[in-house]
Amino acid sequence: MTNDASRSFDHRSPTEAPPTLVWKVMARLDQYDRRRQLIRRFLAATTLAVITVFFRRRSRR
Q: According to the 3-state scheme, what is the secondary structure of 15-60?
């Protein structure tokens, strides 16, 4: 673990938060971040597709 991470956990006592729990939480946060990135990409792709279709239909008329 980096110094910043250990600093953030300094206020907690070692007995309060076991390292396994910390690692589990960190892994879950990483998964959540990946999911958010996927959702963001999906939303961006859908909006782009909608915009392109909209402009194509507009140009046809």
A: CCCCHHHHHHHHHHHHHHHHHHHHHHHHHHHHHHHHHHHHHHHHHH
**9 and 22 in contact (C-beta within 8 Å)?**
yes
Tokens linked to 11: 């206020």
- Give the number of residues written for the chain: 61
Query: Which among 14, 8, 43, 11 is positioned nearest to 29, based on CA atoms?
Result: 8
pLDDT digits (tens, 9 = 90+) for 1-59: 455 555 555 555 555 667 888 889 889 989 989 999 999 999 999 999 999 999 999 88
